[in-house]
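Lab manual, section 2.4: Encoding a predicted structure.

Procedure: take the sequence of the chain (223 residues), apply the prediction step described in section 2.3, and record the output as structure tokens. A sample record is shown.
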Amino acid sequence: MKLSENTVGFLKNYANINQSLEFQEGKTLRTVSPLNTILASVEISEDFPRTFPIYELNRFLGTLSLFNDPELDFTENGVSIKDGSHEATYRYCGSSSMFQTPPDKEITFPDPEIQFEMTKEHFKTTVNAANTLGLPEVVVEGDGSNIKLVVSDTGNTSSDKFSTIVGQTDKTFHMIFKTENLNKIMEGDYDVSLSSKRISHFKREGDSLQYWIALEQNSTFEE
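Recorded output:
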């Protein structure tokens, strides 16, 4: 088996969410952050022949980068990697119980009260603003008229702010994300759904990549 550039890209993103990954037999890649605040899922073109745990995903990806066009063979104890005269064996870790893995059952997402489209440009600008200003939160804010992405520190009323209008609404809400969580999302255009039960869903346009991200406990939604 060979891994496509897209799949390697997803794996690099997953390494930012959790350093470890249990590859499941089949075509679905899923991961979860150590604190269960982010769950990600994507369907890939490859079909893995077995389930196996990798403890240091970046180290595994670094090993693959040593080869120009690696062919992978998934044995019982490790991955055999070959390319011309070069060959490596990367061993699986002892057990996936050594790290956090996604739940077996699919997430049942509640009916969202808030939905909007977030373009790649709006997403990138918002995250860059949060990182540049050193602000810990991104708030999806509804004032009964507009939906805004607001970069701020909700614990400091005098903090700097940066906002972008991304839609319209007749509702009032403050749905709060940790900036560090949004930093872990791949760039793209997203359909975003938010629930008052403090959970969000990001579905990227153009492929099957999805994220479920927990909202902060001080998020509010007015009926």
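Check your result against the sample. The first strand starts at residue 21 and ends at 23.
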